[in-house]
Amino acid sequence: MFYKKTKKVLLMGRCAAGKTSMRSIIFHNNVATKTRNLEPTILWDNKTDVQFLGNLHLNLWDCGGQDDSFNDYLTTYRSLIFKDVHVLIYVFDAVSAELDKDIHYYQSCLESILTHSPDAIVFCLMHKMDLIQEDRRDKMFEKQKIELQVRSEPIQIQAFQTSIWDETLYAAWAKIIHCLIPNIKALQASLDTFCGICGADEIVLFENTTFLVIANSASIHHPDVHRFEKISSIIKQFNLCTRKESYSRQMEIKGSNFTAFFDTLTKNTSVLLIISDHGINDQILIWLLS
Ligand code: GTP
């Protein structure tokens, strides 16, 4: 029997931490430069309802971070906001002048999560890292991550550094959606088989609304560990152009020693294949993707 499985994701953090900016970039095809004029979110916006792979729906609650709103979440709306939460994403402004207050609100939210959704997975995003000097970022983040884990006990958190100005945003959100996809292991195994049949160097599977990487399979070692997030960002730009100019989503790029194919695979996914073995007949790949 068909049933719709909705997973509630809470996006929280103090005002101007960057929550709506990341939501609009990941889910609504906005670009970083256009986030400067976003209006503050009053109470919450839960209209982002994305269909992921098959019958999985993600319902994102972007909760405005004004002090008054926070106080309402923790009192009047406590059960409404914090019940049935699958994932809590808490966004910290890396250059906040009120770190103690930020931590106070964060811990109050965790208490409510423990009461109403004790199995929720908690992600902390140390955001706006572009505003920190590049050579200080990793050290500062590692220190904050340890501090946040201590403040989050008994909950085990996952923390990432992010910025809307680079691929770190896509890296963090790809990790977040991984924990929402129930059959991710089976999907990975199928992709490995597909990669073997095609004789591809690498296959990357993207979710169509967000262009986040769902899974990848590689038969070679690649030196750039951030290549997937970069690809997400590039393909998103490509998607923006094609929507505007109504080009086809299909793409084939021939380099001197590789061929890359990009195409829609299913209603919710697209696939990128990279092949360097010229012995492989392109027609086989076209057939596999058709
Ligand atoms: P509330 O709705 O008031 O809770 O705020 P919010 O957390 O939704 O913040 P919003 O997304 O509106 O962003 C506030 C400002 O931060 C905007 O001017 C964004 O352009 C800016 N911003 C968001 N992300 C980043 C980032 O990664 N780096 C920098 N430098 N600025 C960012």
From TrEMBL:
Signal peptide positions (record): none
InterPro entries registered for this protein in UniProt: Gtr1_RagA, P-loop_NTPase
Keywords: GTP-binding, Nucleotide-binding
Keyword Ribonucleoprotein: no
Keyword match Transferase: no
Family of this protein: Belongs to the GTR/RAG GTP-binding protein family.
Role of this protein: GTPase involved in activation of the TORC1 signaling pathway, which promotes growth and represses autophagy in nutrient-rich conditions.
Quaternary structure and interacting proteins, as annotated: Component of the GSE complex.
UniProt protein name: GTP-binding protein
